[in-house]
Amino acid sequence: MKYLSKMKGSGQSPPRVSFFEILWSWLGAFLGIGAVSLLHFNVLGETDYVMIIGSFGASAVLIYGAIRSPLAQPRNLVGGHVISAIIGVSCYKLFPSDPWLASSCAVATAIAVMHATKTLHPPGGATALIAVIGSVKVHSLGYLYVLIPVGIGALVMLIIALFINNIPRKRSYPEFWF
After folding, report:
1. pTM of whole model > 0.85?
2. Distance between start and end Cα atoms, the chain
């Protein structure tokens, strides 16, 4: 019974954010995902490369909507994605005929290594998983996946976050670099 009682929670829901915060979060996400999408569709559209992956949507929530979170800081954004991409590709290469094993190994190992390196970024788990369950285009990239889309995409989103999140006086990003 004590175990089940832990599931009821122990705190209150956080307060609603202001319209100002909502507006700046929207603008940052629009411009950040827009920049990565523009590169994907207009620059790399005729190639076998990809520039946008689903985990970037979750990163946008953190770096534009939860800018004070330790999980949204530059070290976590870039480090979490890059480390997870390396692990995801490695797991796919180690277990190509067992996607269930490669998937679970990739996500679990990514979490452990992000913890150990102080780069925990929840979208990194998805980045590792995408390396395993992604399309033929993603698999054909091999370790290039770490650089493009993951590394460059995270850097593009970080640059947008640095500019957008520091325009208003009431917002400041990042909280820390390392």
Report:
1. yes
2. 42
